[in-house]
Every structure is written in C-alpha cells, then in structure tokens.
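Readers of this paper often ask what the protein records in our data store actually look like. Below, we set out a record of this kind in full and without editing:
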Amino acid sequence: MHDIIGAIYPIPRYLKDRFFDGKTKVFVKFLARKSTRLAPKDKIIFYVSRGSKKLVGEGVIQKVEFLTPQDVMAKYRQLLFLNEDEFYAYVKRSPMRTESKEMLTLVLKDLREYTAPIQYDRPMTMTGQYLTAAEYNSLISRKVH
C-alpha cells in the first residue's frame, strides 16, 4: 500500500489568485463521509478546473478539522478562501448539505504558485484525489523551473 502524502483538489480559475497572496488560508470541502486520510504536514495541490487541466500551486496542511458551516465562519471567517456569499452559496448548492453537516476544513500554510502550471492529463472529479509520494515526485519532476 502506498502512503498518502497529500491530495489534489480542483478550484475554479477565478479563485486561483486568492490562494497565492502570501497569507495563510483555510480551504473547505464537503466530503461524502466525515473522514480523510490527510494530516498536518501533508500537501495540497490545486488543480484549475473547467478546461485548463493544470496544476497551479500547492500548500502544506497545518491543521485538519471537520466543522459545521457556522463553526467555519465563526472560527475562520477572515482566513477563508471564499467570501461569505460564495461560502454560503457553496453550502447551499446541494440539498444534501445542511447547516449541521460538517465539512473538511484545512488550514494551509506555505502556499506557493508554480511559476509554470503543470499539465495534468488524468481525469479529475470535484472530489479530488489522494496523492502518494511517488505521484508527487513524478508531477514535480515535470515542473518547469
């Protein structure tokens, strides 16, 4: 079995610049289950969704929590990568999401945008995918410096 060292998550192109402005950010995602194999010090790589199919940057997980939307806003409002309207639109996008459903909440640090995005030809769903050390090293070796 391969050890997970992180994950790749898609983000809309219009949100990309918010991740790489030098500030700690909080990334949230609803998952099917309240569990994850991610842990502090793992990496998150961001994939720009809707057409470009490129990995645009990464960050390091500082903290992993499962919080309700209300708790996310109370605790991380100023650090959240979404503004309040975007956040609540995301929360209400699916009828399966309720105010009591907890979401994966990742506090990220050391966010850096790649100087040249990395083409990613594998299929990517909105749920993202886990990343092994071998996969990460393979991706980074393709990066143009």
